[in-house]
Amino acid sequence: MKQRKKHRLSVYLDPEIMTALADYAARRDHSRSLIAEAAIASFLSPDAAERQEAATTKRLDQIDRRITRLERDVGISVETLAVFIRFWLTSNPPLPEPAQAAARAQAGKRYDAFVAALGRRLAQGPKLQQEVSEDIDRPQI
Questions:
Q1: Within its chain, how far is the Cα of 73 from the centroid?
Q2: How far apart are CA 65 and CA 67, in angstroms?
Q3: Long-range pairs for 26-33 at CB < 8 Å and ≥24 separation?
Q4: Would you state the pLDDT for residue 133?
Q5: Do the Cβ atoms of 32 and 22 come closer than 8 Å?
Q6: pLDDT under 70: residue ranges of the chain
Q7: Other beta carbons less than 10 A from residue 48's beta carbon
Q8: CA angle at residue 9 from 53 to 38, to 5 degrees?
Q9: How confident is the prediction for the chain on average, in pLDDT?
Q10: Is-contact 20 27, C-beta < 8 A?
Q11: Which of 32, 81, 104, 111 could covalently link to 25 via disulfide, CB atoms 3.0 to 4.6 Å apart?
Q12: DSSP state of 80
């Protein structure tokens, strides 16, 4: 069998990679040069490119699903806010001028209570989008 001429290549490796290469070569009872050559050939092969493309595609699919969920959650938030504003405007008539000062004084306290309740809700759950999805999945009676 005729042996092909090989070319010499000098590379610099991090100490951890060099140790891993030496350990792997010793376990397989092969030279470090043979292991490095096989690794480079594998890296340059079309299979490696296909694996890399598949991994990238998988990651992009995950990102797409996350963006879809994010769009859904933002839609729920916007609709929730719109329904609340409409409800609030239709059920709360404007206050007469003398009562507005007292209402402004109460507004700060009510806002602080709202923020505290929101903080507890976010810390404990469940989140609104979870409740909405459960309601949608549940059969109507």
A1: 14
A2: 5
A3: none
A4: 66
A5: yes
A6: 1-2, 48, 129, 133-141
A7: 12
A8: 45
A9: 85
A10: no
A11: 32
A12: H
d(CA 63, CA 14): 33
Element (H, E) at 133: helix 128-137
Tokens of 92: 């709360």
Contact 121, 65 (CB under 8 A): no
> 């990102």: which residue's tokens?
63
Give the pLDDT confidence score for residue 16 in this predicted structure: 95
Instruction: Kindly provide the residue ranges of all beta strands, DSSP E only, lying in 13-118, ordered along the sequence.
Output: none
Residues in the chain: 141
Q: Which residue, 63, 11, 65, is CA-closest to 39? A: 11
Tokens 């050559």, located at residue: 37
The CA distance from 20 to 23, in Å, is 5
Position 105 scores a pLDDT of 83
Residue 138 is classified by DSSP as S
